[in-house]
Write a structure and sequence with these properties.
single chain, 348 residues, Arc Repressor Mutant, subunit A, Beta-Lactamase, Enolase-like, domain 1, 3 domains, five-stranded antiparallel beta sheet, 12 helices, 11 strands, 19% strand
Length: 348
């Protein structure tokens, strides 16, 4: 969210601001005039730099912490840096090759989603987050049952083309392996190739049929299938989070209560999902800096996210969460390329 009134900086002010933000991102410390004079490559005095800093402060791009003579960028200053001064580093070819290998299209969707969020977390050393796609259709391809001790049954479902889901069911009565085979055969005959939602609706309808009209096998089939297919999407599957502990190392330099609030936000999910949903319609990488997230009390954190899609249909959002002084130049291409490779893998 860039400022409504675009700021214009002369070349000298732009160089100094870029140098200040880069230094602050690197070590989190206020930057003094003498440090800027030696690092900027400009042949100007510290006094001139102080005048430039005063002008930048007046524009709301930098501020001076009370305990230091140096300055740090404001949220608006970091936004200006990202929008106008940032030079994004191309991702190393070896890293791209590694990402491509890890996101092997032979994996199922769940594995690819997990892998993508884990990779961005490891490469950026931040928290990786990804919203889980909600398929427009989930077709039941095949179902099998395996008898377990203590009236338990393992249901093995093949969904769509490659999704394999395993669920342990707790039954009210003993059912022999032969009966389980009969039940599976019946369900595959009746329901294979149909949308799971339709199958569920039909099972509910059948459950209300007079029990006297059914033989024992039919009753068992409907009961077991009803339990096996009872998978209304849970909130904990709405998005996956990897590497939240990476953020703990920033607790010393940021308000610890902010970190605690962020970790609680991960558990509550709704606000985080609302934030990520704002990236769904975006093309390419979307960046929220500090209070731009619209979540009160998290001004020291930023989100960098990019949608992933198949055949033009956006399935979800992949991103990272870190401090506002995140290495934008290195993190942006990681998120961007990983989202693109994930899209390619899912398409295949």
């Amino acid at each position: 969210m860039a400022s409504q009134t675009p700021l214009q900086l002369n070349e000298r002010a732009a160089i100094l601001l870029k140098n200040l933000v880069t230094s602050y991102i690197s070590d989190g410390q206020p930057v003094g005039s003498r440090q800027l004079a030696s690092n900027s490559g400009l042949n100007i005095s510290p006094a001139t730099i102080r005048n430039v800093m005063a002008a930048l402060e007046k524009q709301g791009l930098v501020k001076a912490p009370h305990t230091s003579a140096g300055r740090i960028p404001t949220e608006q200053g970091i936004r200006f840096f990202v929008d106008s001064l940032l030079e994004v580093q191309p991702l190393d070819k070896a890293v791209v090759k590694q990402l491509s290998a890890e996101l092997n299209p032979d994996q199922n969707t769940e594995s690819l989603i997990n892998q993508a969020s884990q990779m961005v977390s490891e490469l950026t050393r931040m928290a990786g987050v990804i919203t889980v796609p909600k398929p427009s259709q989930s077709v039941l391809r095949h179902i099998e049952f395996l008898s377990l001790p203590d009236r338990r049954v393992l249901a093995i479902l093949v969904i769509n083309e490659k999704e394999v889901q395993n669920r342990v069911l707790h039954l009210d009565k003993d059912i022999s392996p032969d009966e389980l085979t009969q039940v599976a055969n019946f369900l595959n005959e009746q329901y294979a190739g149909r949308d799971i939602f339709e199958v569920r609706q039909q099972l509910l309808k059948d459950m209300h049929t007079t029990r006297a009209d059914m033989d024992r096998m039919m009753q068992s089939a409907i009961d077991i299938a009803g339990r096996a297919l009872d998978d209304e999407p849970a909130d904990d599957k709405a998005y996956l989070l990897q590497g939240a502990t990476n953020l703990v190392r920033y607790a010393g330099e940021h308000n610890t209560s902010q970190l605690q609030q962020l970790l609680e936000l991960f558990d509550q999910k709704r606000e985080m999902l609302n934030l990520l949903d704002r990236c769904i319609q975006a093309e390419g990488v979307k960046i929220f800096i500090g209070n731009e997230m619209g979540i009160e009390g998290l001004g020291d954190f930023s989100v960098i996210a990019s949608p992933y899609a198949v055949d033009g249909e956006t399935l979800g959002v992949l991103g990272v969460i870190g401090p506002t002084r995140i290495n934008y130049d290195k993190v942006i291409p990681v998120v961007d390329i990983t989202a693109r490779l994930l899209s390619d893998a899912l398409k295949q």
